[in-house]
Design a protein that fits this description.
Chain B: It is a multi-pass membrane protein. Chain B: Belongs to the binding-protein-dependent transport system permease family. Chain B: Keywords: Cell membrane, Membrane, Transmembrane, Transmembrane helix, Transport. Chain B: Its main location: membrane. Chain B: This is Sugar ABC transporter permease. The structure holds two protein chains of two kinds. Chain A is α/β, with parallel strands linked by helices. In chain A, the strands form three sheets. In chain A, strands 2-1-3-10-4 form a five-stranded mixed sheet. In chain A, helix 2 links the parallel strand 1 and strand 2. Chain A is globular, with a radius of gyration of 25 Å. About 3% of the residues of chain A have low confidence. Chain B has one domain: MetI-like fold (Orthogonal Bundle). Helices cover 67% and strands 1% of the residues of chain B. Chain B contains 14 helices and two strands, in the order H-E-E-H-H-H-H-H-H-H-H-H-H-H-H-H. In chain B, strands 1-2 form a two-stranded antiparallel ribbon. The two termini of chain B are 39 Å apart. Classes of the chains: A alpha/beta, B mainly alpha. At the A-B interface, helix 1, helix 3, helix 11 and helix 18 of A face helix 1 and helix 6 of B.
Chain lengths: 435, 334
């Protein structure tokens, strides 16, 4: 009798053991071969343009292998993922990109990141625009979370073919001269609309609103939704209301194509040349090229932004504390954000450097973009970058911005009147800030 | 007794003077092995089901910033805040609206489809497999394709409407229109699946019932409503409960239907934000309020339980109502 039941018992034990093994095996992440090679994972979104730089770095550091994740992805999907990895204490790359809007939220819990000042980053201060460096520091200035990658110097991109069809000038200096102010921009838009080209003047009022509010705030108080004491000032800051009113004028004049920004519809509208202008931070040039495709090469050009300058977006590289190779990761982050690294990224995908040395470099200052009819992008974007006036962002910046932009969207779609929209924006922003 | 099967060891057998080692082993085997055999499921359930459930409850009682280090205990405050949160109730109405618009036609269509498939058809297996094809397609692919079909300006649905002389509808910024669009997606995926389940149950209904009904002069429709439907009742209840759970947890379809920025809101004025999307919005981007999000999860759990019970009550009444008619289930076996 013994043989059978013992065998059965063994089978049970085996089954239980394998189940346990199978469930625990998920926990191990088999990185790093035993040969001493270190694998560094870099998490990004959109286009950072680092491929060539990785190759160079790996050639100079034979013990390091670099893997990039998330290339071409959407920021809206990347940010929650990164936050979950940080919260779980596992899963994040060794070097992670952080967009400026999210950086403020991460700064509230700096314990998740390596203090770059402990790794000799202090000496790099001169390599960055002052405000870009400072934004990477925690409130007490004792911890540096991120090293700056790019800034979002502003311009206005436009389609020459549609401008010609509407009988407007197409040459970039003449176009820039059309709109010294946003009111002039609206007037040009009205002319464009009257010509009935079948296209709208701009893509989405939300994008234009964000451009105007960042510009207006940068030129006045230096903050928009939150003041520098982190008090919500959506309803009292004249810069916000002014930007709101200008945007309402744009909507009133029927200039917007109402394509929800970053949706498939928006992408289709690029492909089918359904709008003539789009507010264009430096990084947007890459987006336009990707969305409009090779067929539209040479049909786009870049003019000055109405109003005066402004900054939208730009990112930082940070090293999460959970990284197993912090020293190696910091070294890589320093390399990628060095003037040389920033020039390399700019040449590859167009993000505008945040390093004054890189901005002065002929490779940047003299750069032209063939896709945009050979526009001197270096001159257009880099010229304004050094005098950029940054906008301070408070703790729940992302959530508040979402509410205000959604209010713009409801007015744009005709669901709300401008007054109702403004009331919504203020109440919802307050609610979001309190959450 | 060298081959011991599943029978328990005889109690009054040989005098149990000295149980041998193998005897004790065999006793142990007979008594505990069944538990060990089913243990893997319960182990996995404990790790991936029960533990997260309890942990979510624990989290929901805290002010818990996803990235923060020291959550503070606040008792039921998240729940009281949530019950007064208009956006939450807005999401509940959306979810129930989408649930009703999708599930009712879906189950009716599945029943009808199953009835068709139950007849003598050429290439029967082919047809039966074909209705399952949409279910095999990835939800994400379906949602993206439907999102494009229901586009405001470049969408095919509006193009067809335009041909018919109807003005285009902004499917993503109109509350009821977006519910309909999302329900279409859900039905596309799940009608065939439910049809196959109904079909399997229909084939278990004895044919002689239909024969005697036919002799009594019952029409096909009468046979369907008086024999098929009452006998399918347990299956219908099963399908309704599964659809309730799935429908109230709807996430992927509405999330991917609204592409672009802040898709998690389900439209600029939260036109089709479901409860799971609201949970995600609060627990993760852009609020990162883990405690509040967990409270949403628990209320959703309660909501599903309530709706499931209500559904079962309704379906049960429907079944007995039909069953008391003459020629109903009284003659059925099983």
């Amino acid at each position: 009798m013994g043989a059978t039941s013992r065998r059965r018992l063994a089978a049970v034990a085996f089954l239980a053991a394998t189940t346990l093994l199978a469930t625990t095996a998920c926990g191990g992440d088999g990185e790093d071969a035993g040969d001493g090679t270190v694998t560094l994972t870099v998490d990004v979104f959109g286009q950072f343009g680092y491929e060539e730089l990785y190759k160079e770095y790996m050639a100079a550091n034979p013990g390091v292998k670099i893997v990039e994740r998330g290339t071409g992805g959407n920021l809206d999907e990347y940010s929650p993922k990164l936050t979950q990895w940080l919260a779980a204490g596992k899963g994040a790359g060794d070097v992670v990109a952080i967009e400026e809007g999210l950086l403020v939220e991460y700064k509230a819990n700096p314990g998740n990141f390596v203090n770059l000042l402990d790794h000799g980053a202090a000496e790099l201060k001169g390599n960055f625009l002052d405000w870009k460096w400072n934004a990477g520091l925690t409130a007490d200035g004792k911890q540096l979370i991120g090293l700056g990658t790019d800034v979002g110097g502003m311009a206005m991109c436009y389609r020459k073919d549609l401008f010609a069809k509407a009988g407007l000038p197409t040459e970039r200096d003449a176009v820039s001269a059309l709109w010294p102010t946003w009111q002039d921009y609206i007037r040009v838009g009205e002319k464009f609309t009257a010509a009935k080209t079948g296209a709208s003047f701009l893509d989405a009022a939300t994008n234009t609103f964000n451009t105007i509010v960042l510009q207006t705030a940068g030129n006045s108080s230096g903050y928009h939704y939150y003041d520098t004491g982190d008090n919500l000032v959506v309803d009292t800051n004249p810069a916000v209301k002014q930007a709101w009113d200008t945007t309402m004028d744009i909507i009133d004049s029927g200039l917007s194509g109402k394509y929800g920004a970053w949706s498939e519809e928006w992408v289709s509208a690029f492909k089918q040349a359904k709008f003539a202008t789009i507010a264009c931070p430096a990084w947007m040039t890459g987006v336009i090229e990707g969305n409009a495709g090779p067929a539209a090469k040479g049909k786009w050009d870049i003019a000055r932004v109405p109003g005066n300058g402004g900054n939208w977006g730009g990112s930082y590289l940070a090293v999460p504390k959970q990284s197993k190779h912090q020293d190696e990761a910091v070294k890589l982050a320093k390399y990628l954000t060095s003037a040389k690294g920033q020039i390399g990224a700019f040449k590859a995908k167009g993000p505008l450097p945040s390093s004054p040395q890189a901005l002065d470099d002929p490779a940047v200052a003299g750069a032209t973009n063939a896709y945009f009819s050979g526009a001197p992008v270096g001159q257009i974007f880099a010229a304004g970058a050094k005098s950029l006036k940054p906008v301070y962002m408070g703790p729940k910046n992302q959530a508040v911005r979402t509410e205000v932009e959604n209010a713009v969207r409801t007015v744009e779609l005709g669901q709300r009147s401008p007054d109702q929209g403004w009331t919504d924006a203020v109440t919802n922003a307050k609610k979001a800030a309190a959450k | 007794m060298s081959v011991q099967l599943d029978a328990r060891p005889p109690v009054a057998a040989a005098p149990p003077v000295r149980p041998t080692r193998s005897y004790r082993l065999s006793r142990f085997d007979a008594r505990w092995s069944p538990y060990l055999y089913i243990a893997p499921f319960f182990l996995l359930f404990a790790v991936f089901g029960a533990y997260p459930l309890a942990y979510t409850l624990w989290v929901s009682l805290h002010e818990w910033d996803l990235l923060g280090t020291d959550p503070t205990f606040i008792g039921a405050e998240n729940y009281t805040r949530l019950l007064a949160d208009v956006d939450f109730w807005h999401a509940v109405v959306n979810t129930l609206g989408i649930f009703v618009i999708s599930t009712v036609p879906q189950l009716l269509a599945a029943l009808w489809l199953a009835n068709l498939l139950n007849r003598q058809l050429r290439a029967r297996t082919g047809w039966r497999m074909a209705v399952l094809v949409p279910n095999v397609t990835s939800t994400a692919a379906v949602a993206i394709v439907f999102g494009v079909l229901f586009g405001r300006e470049f969408g095919m649905v509006n193009w067809v409407l335009d041909l018919a002389g109807v003005d285009g509808i902004d499917w993503k910024a109109n509350r009821v229109a977006s519910w309909v669009a999302i329900s279409t997606m859900v039905d596309w995926r799940w009608t065939g699946y439910n049809a196959l389940i109904f079909l399997a149950a229909m084939q278990a209904i004895p044919r002689d019932l239909y024969e005697s009904a036919a002799i009594d002069g019952a029409s096909r429709a009468r046979q369907f409503w008086s024999i098929t439907v009452p006998l399918l009742r347990p299956t219908i209840i099963f399908a309704v409960i599964i659809s309730t759970i799935g429908g109230l947890q709807l996430f992927t379809e509405p999330r991917l239907f609204h592409a672009g920025t802040n898709a998690i809101r389900g439209g600029p004025s939260r036109e089709s934000q479901t409860v799971t999307m609201y949970m995600f919005e609060n627990a993760f981007a852009p609020y990162y309020n883990f405690g509040y999000g967990s409270a949403v999860a628990w209320l959703l759990f309660a909501l599903i339980a309530v709706v499931a019970v209500v559904n079962v009550l309704i379906i049960r009444r429907l079944g007995t109502g039909a069953g008391t008619r003459p020629g109903g289930r009284k003659g059925g076996r099983g």
